[in-house]
Design a protein that fits this description.
The complex is a heterodimer of chains A (137) and B (121). Chain A is α+β, with helices and mostly antiparallel strands and 137 residues long. Chain A is 36% helix and 31% strand. In chain A, helix 1 (16-32) packs antiparallel against helix 2 (37-56) and helix 2 runs antiparallel to helix 4. Chain B has one domain (6-120): Transcription Regulator spoIIAA (2-Layer Sandwich). The chains are: A alpha+beta (137), B alpha/beta (121). The interface between A and B is medium-sized, with 27 and 24 residues.
Chain lengths: 137, 121
């Protein structure tokens, strides 16, 4: 998988209006690679969950959005990064219904189901990076 | 922060969401609706989401919260106009809307509220 569209576009996540901006940017990219309406909606919904996690649990961070290619396939990759407290128990955090905060516990597990590729990289005390990809077709 | 307007028509509060909701707007709408139901004694709330492109867990939880709140004031909440792509995504996300009533469109939503009201008399 390689990046196709040059440098990724970066947005800060510092307030809940930024979560809306991330959604809008991800939708623009999803439309650019011509994802179906259902897949656009799934990717934007996942991005909304993950951007909120970055804000609420990571204490803010950044989102990076780009077009990626894999042979002839095109897709959208979205990376959510924070330098927050990290996740002590990844297995637990990925379980449905588990939440360390006031959420429903669907943020990570739910968004994982909405995308084609999902990678969680976290270290206690150092931060969390979640990378998701949605492919066209 | 934008606020979502609440209209009142024939004992029903009507909310049509036409903006990209940020979390603060969602929380404000919950509070505004509780206040308006209490002030007006409305018997029903219709939330029209035909203009909403995504419903994530935060927005989905708002529907359940508003439904529970309205029940405390003896009012029924119906969510109408969900787009097909939003419905598919909600199911895959794993979000259940609890006992929130849904209807295909505004007309059917109002019909449900009307029937319920007549049934109670």
């Amino acid at each position: 998988m390689t990046a196709a569209g040059g440098e990724p576009e970066e947005l800060p996540i510092a307030g809940d209006d930024d979560v809306v901006r991330v959604r809008q940017l991800v939708r623009t990219y999803a439309q650019r690679v011509k994802l179906s309406l259902v897949n656009q909606t799934k990717l934007v919904t996942a991005a909304s969950e993950l951007a909120r996690n970055t804000l609420v649990y990571g204490g803010g961070g950044v989102a990076r959005i780009e077009v990626v290619t894999d042979g002839v396939r095109q897709g959208v990759r979205a990376v959510f990064h924070d330098d927050g407290p990290g996740i002590p128990d990844v297995t637990l955090a990925l379980a449905d219904g588990w939440s360390s905060g006031s959420g429903l516990g669907l943020g990570l597990s739910g968004s994982r189901r909405l995308v084609d590729e999902f990678d969680l990289d976290t270290e206690v005390g150092r931060g969390t990076t979640v990378t998701v990809v949605k492919w066209r077709g | 922060m934008e606020r979502v307007p609440i209209l009142e028509i024939g004992g029903v509060l009507l909310v049509s969401i036409q903006i990209d909701l940020q979390d603060q707007t969602v929380l404000a709408l919950q509070e505004d609706l509780a206040q308006r139901i209490s002030d007006t004694g409305a018997h029903g709330v219709v939330i029209d989401i035909s203009g909403v492109e995504i419903v994530d867990s935060f927005i989905g939880r708002m529907f359940a919260t508003i439904a529970s709140l309205s029940r405390l004031f003896d009012a029924t909440t119906v969510v109408v106009g969900m787009r097909p792509a939003v419905a598919i995504t909600l199911v895959e996300l794993g979000l259940t809307l609890g006992d929130v009533r849904t209807a295909l469109n505004l007309e059917r939503g109002l019909k449900i509220l009307g029937e319920q009201r007549r049934g109670r008399r």
